Amino acid sequence: MIEVYAYLRGEKEDVNNFLKYGDKESERRIKKQSLEEHIEDSIKALENEIKNTKIWKYYTTLSNREEEHVEKWTKFTIVFHDLGKMFYQKNDRLYKNERYLNFAGHEFISTFLADKFLEIWLKNGAEDRFDEYTDFRWVIIGSILYHHHAIGLRKRGRLNEIKVCINHEEFKRIIERTSETIKKYLKVFEEEAISQFIRELETIKPERTGIRNILVLSRDQLSDIYRYVSEGLNEKVWEKFIGDKNFRKRMILSTNILIMTDYKGSETREGRKTEFWKVLDETITLYNLVNVIRP
Question: What domain range is 53 assigned to?
Answer without folding.
Answer: 5-291
